[in-house]
Each structure stands twice: as C-alpha cells, then as structure tokens.
Amino acid sequence: MFPFIPRKVAQAGKSTAATASSSQSRRNTLPTTSTTRDSAAEGGQPVDVKGKRKAVDTDPAVEDYYSLLCLALSDHAIWADSHLRSRLINGSDGYIPLRYLLSHSPVLTGLDPSPSETVVAKVVRAQECAFLDIRVLVSAPSRAAWYGKDSAEDVLGGYEVRRRDWPEALRRIHQLTEDDWAARSVYVENIPFQYRTTAAIARFIHSLTVSPSSSEPSMPTQHIWLPPHVQDKPGDQPKCKGFALISVSTLAQAENLAHDWPWDVRRTDLYNVADTAEAQEAVKFGFRVMPRARWDALREEYLAYRQTLLDALAYSEHETGEAQETNTVEEHAPSHATAPSLLTTDLSSPYPQGCLVFVRNVHPETNKTTLRALFSQPFTESGAADAGVDYVDFSKGMDTCYLRLASARHTQLLTAFFAANSKAQNGGLDTTGVAPSPGTTLKAVTLEVVEGIREELYWNKVPEKVRRQAVEKATATSTASDQPENVGEEAFEPAEKKRKRKRRKRDE
Amino acid sequence: MASSSSSTPIHGNYHGYYIKRPFANDPRVAVLPASIFEGARVLDVGCNEGWVTCEIAQSKGAKKVVGVDIDDKLVRLAWKRRRHVWTLQDPFTSGKHQEEHETQPVRKRRKVDGDNGEAEASKPSLQADYFPASFEHMFSPLPIPPVDYPDGPGRTEFPHNLTFRAADWVNNEILEDKEGYDAVLAFSISKWIHLNGEDEGLMRFFRRVHSVLRVGGTFVLEPQEWESYHKARRMNPKLKSLEHLKLRPDDFERILRDIGFGPPEHLGKIGEGGFKRPIDVYTKLN
C-alpha cells in the first residue's frame, strides 16, 4: 500500500507563514510515496538527446546556466524558501551571492561539478534580456555571515546576482498563498525528447507562453517538479520522463497552456498557436496539459483504484500467486515449448501430463465448490473424496470449465465414471447431477481429456509455482503401478503428506 | 529467435523504434476500415514493442490480438507496453458489466481520436489515456485483474484479449495459429522477411498468411520499396546479397493473387518523412 497524504491534510500541519521544510523550494505538500523525497535536490541534469543513459554530464549547455539561475531566483523560489527570502530582504540591494545560490538552490545544486562563478557571470552578462543583474562581490570580513561554514575558507571574490525587479517581486510574493500557486500550476506530458531537462523545460514553456515578438523580460516558468520514480531513493535526482508539474507566473498563462494543449483530442496542427520550432515539436510529440487540480484528483483516483485491484487479486479465486507479482508472471512470454514427455509425469515434467479435463455444459450459475463435489463423485476412497480434483478452473457465467486432476489415474477414473453415467447439472447447486431426460433442455456434461498443444497452452498460462505444485502432486499421488518410470525420492512420499500441504482458497 | 544481444537489427528489430514515432494512434491503423478489427482475431507480424498491437486490442473491438516478433527483448517490452496502456486506461472499462452498475453515474466516454483530432462518436468506448503517465512512474503500474473480476474487462477485451509471442513466425507456428485469424497485419516487415529468407522465405510467409486466414479474412500489407533494400543490406552486412532475390515488391500483388487473395485495396501512402508507404488490403478468396 502506498501511503499518500491528501493535500488538505498535509497543509493542515504546516504553517503558512514560513515553509515547513528547512530549505528546499520543492513543493512540500505534494504527496509522494516518501516525504523525504520532497527534499531531494532537483538538478538540471541534461540528457543526451538520443536518450542513452549517460554518466553525470560535466558540461551542460551554457544557456542552461541562465535558465537555472532564473529558476533559482523565480518568484516561486523566493516564496518557497524562507532563507533565500530573508537574505533578499535583509541584504544589499537585492543581491545574493552566486556562491550561495550554487550551493543551496535546489535547481543548481544538482549540477556536478558546480560551474565556476566566472562562467555563470559571463553567461548572465551575455543575455540581452535584462532580467538579472550581476556584479562582482566586494568581499569583506563582515560578509562572512553570508557564506556559512562550508565556504568559510574562501570569502574573497566571486559574484552576486539579483532580480532586477526584486522589490516588485517581493511585494507580489507577499500576497501569494499555496492555493495561488496551485492555481498557477499545470501538469504537462509528452515533453519533446530534446527538452527533457529542467533548464530546457523552462525554455520550452517560455516559448509556448510568451509571444515571440515580445521583448520584455519575463519569466513564465516559476517552478518545475519532476515526479520521482517509485524506486528512487531519497536524495536521488528524478529523471525527466516527459512529464512534469510546472508552476507559471500568472493564472492566464496556466489557463492558456491548458487551453492550447488540451488533454483530450490531442492537437495535430498549429491552429491558434504561435508557429515556433518548439510548438511544432510539441505537436509532433503530442504535448498536452491538464490543470494541477485535475491531476490531483486523478492521483487520488489512481491510488484508490490501485488498491481496489490489489484487494481483488488478493482475494481472487484466480491462481495468480502473490497479488503484486501477478502480472509479471502473466506477462512473461513463455519461452521455448518443450516437448512433453509421453504419459508419465515426473519432477522434470513442465506440467502434469494427462491431468487436465475440459468440461462442457455445466450450469452457468454454478460455482467451484459445487463443481468440485459433482466431479469428485468417482473418487470414493475414504478420506480422499476431494483429493482427486486438484482445482476447478471455472469462471462465473460460463458453461464450461477445466478440471485439474491430482493424477492421470484420477483423470481416467473421472472420465470413465461420466462415460458410464451420463449426467446433466440441474441448477447451480446440483452436486450430483441428473440423468438428462429427452424432454428437457438440460444437456449432459461432456468431459474431454485435454492433450497435446492445448494441454501445453493451458498449463503455460498457470503460474510456475502452481504448476510446479501440480507436477509434484501428480508425481506423488499416482501409484507406482501406474507410473513405473517415476524418478526422484519425492515420488515415494506418502500421500498424507501431500494432503497436509496448504490449500488454496476456495471461497466463492 | 533473435538474440537480444545482436547490435544490428538484422530482422528490422529496431530497438527504440517508437522514440521517434511517439504516437499512440498509428496513422496506418487509422486508415483501415473498422470492420477489419471488430470482433476479429488479429495477428500482427513483426509487432516490435506492440504499440500497434495494443492499440488494436484496446480500441478496435478485436476479440483476440496476437503480436509476434522474432526478437524476444522486444516482446518483453511489448508485454510492458500492454501493462502501460492498461495503466493509463479509464477504470470504467467493461461495457458488459454496466448493467450491474446502473445506479452509479455512467462515466462519459469518448474514443480517443484516431484520425485528425476529432473524437469519434461511434460506440461508447473507454478512454485510453485517462490517467497521466506520471502515476505509473510514481506508484508503479496498475495490476491487471483476473478475467472473472466483476468490474473488469472480460476475456475478449483489453488487456485479456492480447498476447505476445517471441517467434520466427515465417518458419515456426505459434499456438494461436491453430484457431486461425480474421486479419493478419504485416506492417513494414516484408523487406526483412525477404532479405533474411530470400524469395523462398517470402513465399513461405505469404502462403502461411493465406493458410491461417479464414475465407474472407484480410491481409494488410505495408511493403517497403525495393530501393530501401539496398540500404538495409549495406547496414547489415550479415544479410545475404540482393542478387539472389528475383522477386520485387511490385510482384507482390501478382503473387498474392496467385496464392488465393483477391485484388488489393490500395489505401494510399501514409506517414511523414521517410515512412511513406502504401497500405494494401487483400482479402482471402478461397
């Protein structure tokens, strides 16, 4: 069971004045399978466009630094990070030391190795768009307070950077709440392959949001959250798999994104959308957007549905072994078909030979318990009345079923019995059967021993563990006279021991 | 069977085929009449990761769909694709159980667009991409319920109606062949069969298709052009030389008609860039 915390509950435990989490700008209330994952640093680790796994990239595109720096100083970053915010308020004309950002901002700490300040400064200065200001840091002993212990050795030199519009930003931020950000957030999917890094996503969203003709500096992308993988460990950096939760600057931008790139009826052309390279790629990849609120609702639905399915599997009559591993077994493509050995079952058999019977004309309203009783009639040895039929493979509503018998000998007894005693099942709870009379529509049950490829096909679909047990049972419960070729010590285990084996659930 | 360690796709068993073609709705499938698939048993030869196969099983009303590929690694991925597609699907799936839920509001369903972004208003069907992909990533895929699960899909519905097999279908039977098919698809596969098996292999393939189809059944062939054979041969030196090949794609129509198919319906050239190829639909006569 994957625990999750509905946003409302998570919020209740958090003060709105300051973010509860100690440092990170990642959305704290976002339910994840591990709350510690929330504090994992998020880096703009570029991925080779061909999608090959790469070791840590040591040289991201230079323009990435600028995008990431803008994200590090976005409204959302300042809003979410009280430490950053207080340094902004108490600092020198809005400037923040670049060193601080490189070592504390979640979008920058992932860069490995950390870029040199000189390179970053160069990049910022090269931008035509006047969003950030950068200047040389005039270091003084009194500035040591900015740096903290980890960089105490070197307080000289470096740069500091600020948002040019920092006073307005602070004023704006002061008004915003968690709900405001949620309303400005969207879930996006099918991000074109070449844009699947934090920095590239920021630029991609920028190009979809801002008119190409606009020359005003703007920063539509405020925050990018890459969902962690279920197997990620705390501290792992999530990889972008083509989807993300994105917070943008304005409500209008969020609404327009959802409107321009609808979820249903994926767009196939650029009607009403600015014709840019990014937009063309977006169309090609099936880029689509849904509002955050919708995503939240679907998440809850998914988790509830998932639990329902797990419960269904746990209690199901269907033989699927451990509930959670069901589908890996079901989905495992059977490998080479091995030729079944002739008639004898031993421990090396892939499945028990001659133990499968296909029955027609059972009553559609019957159930497994009734069928078991009906088809156990031939087996009258005391104490073993229900040991002949190993499993009834029946689905409600069907008028056929398969019977797995404990051994080939039991199969013979069963078919002989019903060949000599023609019986129809008169109702869902009939455990003895009636002689079919000509006047009724009742049809006699017919039994057919399943052989050859059909038999193999059937057993191939049975989970290996169960199949194995059936083989062991068939090997052991047949008498020595029927199977002179028995091999293996277990073949001579007394039948009682087999009966003590845990039985599968037989509930209806 | 193709070894998964082979580095060149000698059988056209490209890995990462769908990275450059990230469409859930394949335009080649969209162009085919729905009647080919409704209630049908369908075989997809050379299914790769099963994107087309899954689409047909999920949204075309097919009774049973089998995807076969020579590369077992691709087949493993196809099973994963099946699970992925299931995980994204609207939970309110099975129409046959709807009577049992009359008191509950029926979720409005719309078929995910096939052709040009327009929703088809035909029979109500499940929404294929209901859940965002992020949940599979965050919480792992959804379990597939057993066939008899009351609220779930039945045996002839997705995903239970879909199976994948790793096999060299040209030369080996698979279990499902015994019951035969109503439709066999051969998308972008003929070149590879031809190059690996030469003329004889190709003929065997066509005859096999004919033998497993019922009378009136459909063979959908998307053949690659002869010009592309050269490039394939250059990139895969293990393939035999082209000089042994006497047959050409232009001969396919004649060959298939000789075997017992009717004249093909040419559904024109689909796809963009280097993937424009004709889709030819043949019907088995006798």
From TrEMBL, chain A:
Residues 8-55, 319-344, 468-508 are annotated as: Disordered. Residues 26-38, 475-484 have a biased composition (Polar residues). This is XRRM domain-containing protein. Pfam families: xRRM (PF19977). It comes from the Eukaryota. Keywords: RNA-binding. Residues 10-25 have a biased composition (Low complexity). It comes from Rhodofomes roseus. Residues 350-508 form the XRRM domain. Residues 497-508 have a biased composition (Basic residues). The keyword RNA-binding applies.
From TrEMBL, chain B:
Its EC number is 2.1.1.-. Residues 26-286 form the Bin3-type SAM domain. It holds the Pfam family Bin3. Residues 96-105 have a biased composition (Basic and acidic residues). The keyword Nucleus does not apply. Coiled coil: none annotated. Residues 93-123 are annotated as: Disordered. It comes from the Eukaryota. Keywords: Methyltransferase, S-adenosyl-L-methionine, Transferase. CDD domains: AdoMet_MTases (cd02440). Belongs to the methyltransferase superfamily. PANTHER family: 7SK SNRNA METHYLPHOSPHATE CAPPING ENZYME, BICOID-INTERACTING PROTEIN RELATED. This is RNA methyltransferase.
